[in-house]
């Protein structure tokens, strides 16, 4: 198990992102200031339902996409 | 005055009264987006799925605050996808975004110059999405054979282009659109290319069940006025189609009788 202060490297929306080890996808969403916002999260090309965010631990190397709705045709 | 009736416009088992579907792109701001869409009378509204801007103000307005899923039937698109895999991922993200809502507009594009549909990838994506329980409204070329394949697979609406996305060139091949309308048992909508009200009316006069447009309203000098024009054009075109146009003649045929003329 990593110690709480250890940092892991993720890829978030195509960019490198460092995060404290041992946290969940819900923690990441909160950290981004997106808690309660209408977003969707995908980790390693798999959807993580809202109900599962808090139960989804993040691991080094995870490829994470956080998306929302924007104007389009 | 007689109340005229029409059959309901049904997409994947849901009934709608407006046959105009509109996009939410290219507006000046969300206020204009909301006002134009309200003016259009549209009930089905498309949007795109994109990466959240990280580090943005968390209180910044969100499209879905303006275009509420409670008020409108939201139709996420796969614009910007150039292969089946990306389109399928985008649809799954959209379904999560909308709490399980499974109606999507599938578009898989060929290149960024024409945005012409890549029908090979579109067919692949449709197959995966349909197997995954999506209701798929599919943007495609005006090829009647491809349209027939997509319908046979189970797509709930066939949406041939009128002309290139955002071009405003209207319906370049009305004969193909009519062939698709005549052969299809699911709704057919012209999606892309509509430039002005007469283009929308033409789509409906060809027998299309609806029209999907965005730029024609958003890029008009006065979007609200054009939204209203599109609403009326779709209604007028639909009525003209149902009424059945008069036969064309090679010579004139006076509307006023010859008999009783003062110079007779």
UniProtKB/TrEMBL annotation, chain A:
Gene3D superfamilies with a match to the protein in the record: 3.10.20.30
Domain of life: Bacteria
TM segment ranges: none
InterPro entries recorded: Beta-grasp_dom_sf, Mopterin_synth/thiamin_S_b, Thi_S, ThiS/MoaD-like
Protein name per UniProt: Sulfur carrier protein ThiS
Lineage, highest ranks first: Bacteria, Pseudomonadati, Pseudomonadota, Gammaproteobacteria, Oceanospirillales
Automatic annotation (TrEMBL), chain B:
Sequence similarity: Belongs to the ThiG family.
InterPro entries from the UniProt entry: Aldolase_TIM, Thiazole_synthase_ThiG, ThiG
Function: Catalyzes the rearrangement of 1-deoxy-D-xylulose 5-phosphate (DXP) to produce the thiazole phosphate moiety of thiamine. Sulfur is provided by the thiocarboxylate moiety of the carrier protein ThiS. In vitro, sulfur can be provided by H(2)S.
Keyword field contains Cytoplasm: yes
GO biological process: thiamine diphosphate biosynthetic process
Positions annotated as active site in the UniProt record: 105
One Gene Ontology term of the molecular function aspect: thiazole synthase activity
Name of the protein: Thiazole synthase
Highest rank taxon of the organism: Bacteria
Pathway participation: Cofactor biosynthesis; thiamine diphosphate biosynthesis
Subcellular location field: Cytoplasm
One Pfam family named in its UniProt record: ThiG
Ranges for domain Thiazole synthase ThiG: 10-257
Residues that bind 1-deoxy-D-xylulose 5-phosphate: 166, 192-193, 214-215
Gene it is expressed from: thiG
Subunit structure: Homotetramer. Forms heterodimers with either ThiH or ThiS.
Species classification: Bacteria, Pseudomonadati, Pseudomonadota, Gammaproteobacteria, Oceanospirillales
Organism the protein comes from: Vreelandella aquamarina
Keywords: Cytoplasm, Schiff base, Thiamine biosynthesis, Transferase
Entry GO terms, CC: cytoplasm
EC number: 2.8.1.10
Keyword presence, Cytoplasm: yes
Catalytic activity reported: [ThiS sulfur-carrier protein]-C-terminal-Gly-aminoethanethioate + 2-iminoacetate + 1-deoxy-D-xylulose 5-phosphate = [ThiS sulfur-carrier protein]-C-terminal Gly-Gly + 2-[(2R,5Z)-2-carboxy-4-methylthiazol-5(2H)-ylidene]ethyl phosphate + 2 H2O + H(+)
Main localization, broad class: cytoplasm
UniProt-annotated stretches for the region Disordered: 245-264
């Amino acid at each position: 198990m990593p110690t709480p202060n250890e940092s892991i490297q993720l890829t978030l929306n195509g960019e490198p992102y460092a995060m404290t080890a041992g946290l969940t996808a819900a923690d990441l969403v909160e950290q981004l200031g997106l808690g309660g916002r209408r977003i969707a999260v995908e980790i390693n090309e798999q959807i993580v339902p809202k109900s599962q965010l808090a139960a989804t631990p993040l691991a080094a190397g995870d490829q994470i996409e956080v998306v929302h709705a924007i104007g389009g045709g | 005055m007689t109340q005229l009736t029409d059959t309901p416009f049904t997409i994947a088992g849901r009934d709608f009264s407006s046959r105009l579907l509109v996009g939410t792109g290219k507006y000046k701001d969300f206020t204009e987006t909301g006002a134009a869409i309200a003016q259009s009378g549209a009930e089905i509204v498309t949007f795109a799925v994109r990466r959240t801007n990280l580090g943005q103000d968390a209180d910044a307005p969100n499209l879905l605050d303006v275009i509420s899923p409670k008020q409108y039937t939201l139709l996420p698109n796969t614009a910007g996808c150039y292969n089946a895999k990306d389109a399928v991922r985008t649809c799954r993200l959209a379904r999560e975004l909308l709490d399980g809502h499974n109606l999507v507009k599938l578009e898989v594009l060929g290149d960024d110059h024409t945005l012409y549909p890549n029908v090979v990838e579109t067919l692949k994506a449709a197959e995966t999405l349909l197997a995954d329980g999506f209701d798929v409204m599919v943007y495609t070329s005006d090829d009647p054979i491809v349209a027939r394949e997509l319908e046979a697979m189970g797509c709930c609406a066939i949406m041939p282009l009128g002309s290139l996305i955002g071009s405003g060139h209207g319906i370049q091949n009305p004969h193909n659109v009519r062939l698709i309308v005549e052969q299809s048992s699911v709704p057919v909508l012209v999606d892309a290319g509509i430039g002005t009200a007469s283009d929308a009316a033409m789509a409906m006069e060809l027998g299309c069940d609806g029209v999907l447009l965005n730029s024609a309203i958003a890029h008009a000098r006065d979007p609200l006025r054009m939204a209203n024009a599109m609403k009326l054009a779709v209604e007028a075109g639909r009525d003209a189609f149902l009424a059945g146009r008069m036969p064309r003649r090679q010579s004139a045929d006076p509307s006023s009788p010859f008999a009783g003329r003062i110079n007779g």
